[in-house]
Amino acid sequence: MLAWINSVLSPVAQLARERGLGAGRQAGGQDQEGIVVQARGGVLAGDLAQAREMAAKLEALPDYDANLYHRIGRCFFNTDRFWEARAAFIRVVAIAQDETVREAGHFDLILAISRLRRFDDLVLEADRYLATYDPAGKWE
Length: 140
Prior knowledge:
The protein is mainly alpha-helical. About 75% of the residues lie in helices and about 0% in strands.
């Protein structure tokens, strides 16, 4: 996420530097418009620093996206929108780094497929689940 925010904000910072909105420009420049833009440039620099700080904090959370998609999937599941829930749970299984989140998402994926009455997909996904989380066959 930090890379994405930097890719969005870097052109803005570059534009501010090109227009002389950095710390080196003095108030009371030649044009009145420049003074207004200079004040906005200071706010822009503060916003840029704040956005980078928030992105770094989000990057520190290991499974923010996976947990979010799992919650979204549960919301879809509870409102009987099983296809959308299935899509969210597939994403959780793909991106979750925490094993407990991935297992919960995978189990909920099986439930969503079951509610969609897609038997062939259900059997394949249940076999994948058991092979991943119970390879010794303890649940049999």
